[in-house]
Amino acid sequence: METFIGVDYSTWWFLVLGAVFTGYAILDGFDLGAGALHLFFRKEQSRRIALNAIGPVWDGNEVWLVIGGGALFAGFPKVYASLLSAFYIPIMLFLVMLIFRAVSIEFRSKEDMKWWRATWDISYSVSSIMLAFLLGIVLGNVLLGIPLDIDGNYTGNWLHFINPYAVMVGVTTLALFMMHGAIYLVMKTEDKLYDKLTQLVQRTTIFFVISIIMVSFYTLLYIPHLSESIKSNPWLFPIPILMILAIANITRQVAKKKYLWAFLSSAFTMSMLLTIVALELYPIMLLSSTDPAFSLTVYNASSSQKSLGIMLTVAAIGVPLVAVYTSFVFWTFKGKVKLDETSY
Amino acid sequence: MSVEILSRIQFAFTVAFHYIYPPLSIGLGLVMVLMEGQYLRTGEKVYHQMAHFFTKIFALIFGIGVATGIVMEFEFGTNWATYSRYVGDVFGSALAAEGIFAFALESGFLGVLLFGWNKVGPRVHFFSTIMVFLGSMFSAIWIVVANSWQQTPAGFHVVGEGMNARAEITDFWAMVFNPSAIDRVLHVWIGSFLAGSFLVISISAWYLLKKRHVDLAQRSFKIALSVAAIASLAQLFTGSRSAEIVAEHQPAKLAAMEGHFDSLAVADMYLFGWVDRDAQKVYGLKIPKGLTFLLHKDFSTPVRGLNSFAMTDRPPMVNFVFQMYHIMIAIGMFLIFWSWFLMWLWWRKKLFSYNWVLIVSAWSVLLPQIANQVGWFAAETGRQPWVVYGLLRTSDAFSKTVTANQVLFSLILFTIVYLLLFTLFFYMLNKKIKHGPATEDRDIQHSPLQQNMANLLD
């Protein structure tokens, strides 16, 4: 097996995939969160400012999902095939919600009629909530494992994806994104909307802290395979501790009104959370609840070494480029939102 | 209906709907680059208004293109799991490259293109427009390379057997430059230039008919016409080159395109016709030995016909493939005639003198759209019964764990959502066109910082 700095290509691609999905969670997380909070803003002007705070960047954020999907397809085609065909209905709903959300953002401010804007506001908010929730649902099921036969074909029924644990992970994801989005919006707004958002930041932070505590306890008590690696490797112990400190730091920075630091802490929380997920799953990517031996792993589900090598080269060239112009775009639109004739 | 048929209908429907938008983005992107370039070169405000106006139309098209495009990326996994496992090693790297090199580029700079008019200097803005255009061109490369690999697979070997067989890459560049890739990328690019330029021609012609924004519309008409005239001619060459490659690598598809049944005979070329598959005859107007001449530049070399293939290896819908292919060619020919007729009028300084010319121009936007659609239908139905030509059959490629009811549900869902989407798109496009370009251009103010940035990128 080919290696690079002592780590095999399959594991490298697993890490790339983890990094892409973490990037996606941090970036699209704040604009999905902003969408989920949209109906809390009552005034037309506030809604437009909130929408334009994510206006120039949401599309670029969504690209991370496209890259993630491509990276999964390319590196682990068997996981891509089994996962998506198993979650047929939630994935289809997810895709339709993505369409509704894009359309709502694009169309809401194009007409002046009240009913028009109200309809698209609801569609925008509901689709944002659903997207965050469905992402959590899929993550929850991946953590639990799904019934797969020896060929990696899903054998459960189509309603299997709704179960208490997945719902809890779904709610937690929504809470996390809402907090993250509120912190982002508070950085982009002024005056009364800013005051309103400082309140929302506090409430969503409480919502998130409660849900993450619940989900963590449930996981520790009832799903032993999700804490095994950290239990058996004490040197990994700092990771969950860092996550807890990061969450504590969010509340501290929020209290001090240092929102940029709160945002960075919230982003750091997400990366630690996903690091724990990756550590606990590895080398399994899709656990079979029928028989663990049928699980898809980074080794039995990966593309050939040759293909992984090519893609690692592509990623090594491409990712820094993406980072450079993403930063350029964010820098161009830094500061508080001012509406002008190009706004949504 | 079976899962296979429903999945095929769903894929065809979602991809055909999606394909209304990307060619418009690519073509309009090119025209916008030219417009903004004219503004920077001449400093005339009318070009700034023009670029600004078409950017708004671009935003609408791009937005729907992205939303419907993500559907495609995930549909491979949801509906075509066996196919995904088979091609992932090869196809995946092209898709991943598309995401990271192309899509990230266009979506990143799109924000600056749409919202950055007052935030960055004109040169940085022009740079962003070029990046968005290049991003969409790169995007087309990777997607068409992946599709071409399904038509003419290269640079791989097959590992495993039966349902566990899969293609593994052996030579990345051989995969990228598979036999049909270059010509098909060019064919798709130029088809997109036609779609975009005829959109601008159509909108401009409409303004001229209504006597609104006359100066602006005349100039945008001419910019777009220059693109259309070159593109329509170039398409003739990429098209005939593509036909030669199909003849060489997918002879059954070519035979279906011309309704050529005889195993080994000199082949005719039809201008139009109707294929009776059972009688193995084509009724229509033909150029005797035309296909032979097109492919071999003589009148005696035989061409392989459908009868030389096993019944199970022939495209099942011969007449459909034939019609789609011939509609594409007829439209292509008309576009050459029409754009060069317009060029002639321009040369005679009578481009805007006749109402009927403007009326035909206003409707002409539909033609490249139809040609792009039917061209793909011919390419994809002509590839049947294979999903990867000669390697994997469509009937083996669908997801085994998904039920017909699930696919029916999503198909109905997409039908409703896309109908709604198309209605909204049409309504908004109409509204934007009726509203027209901003006549009183606002003064664009640049802060010193933004000026510095502009100088940096000079």
Q: What features would you describe in this structure?
A:
The complex is a heterodimer of chains A (344) and B (458). Chain A is 72% helix and 3% strand. Chain A is mainly α. Chain A starts with a strand and ends in a 12-residue tail after the last helix. By secondary structure, chain B is mainly alpha-helical. Chain B has 16 helices and eight strands. Chain B has helices at residues 3-18, 21-42, 45-79, 81-115, 122-151, 172-176, 181-210, 214-249, 251-258, 290-296, 318-347, 355-363, 366-383, 394-397, 404-435, 448-456; strands at residues 156-159, 166-169, 264-265, 269-276, 281-287, 303-304, 386-388, 392-393. In chain B, helix 2 crosses helix 7 and helix 7 (181-210) runs antiparallel to helix 13. Chain B is globular and about 65 Å long. The termini of chain B are far apart. The model of chain B is unreliable at 441-458 (pLDDT under 50). Classes of the chains: A mainly alpha (344), B mainly alpha (458). Chains A and B meet through helix 3, helix 4, helix 5 and helix 12 of A and helix 3, helix 4, strand 2 and helix 15 of B.
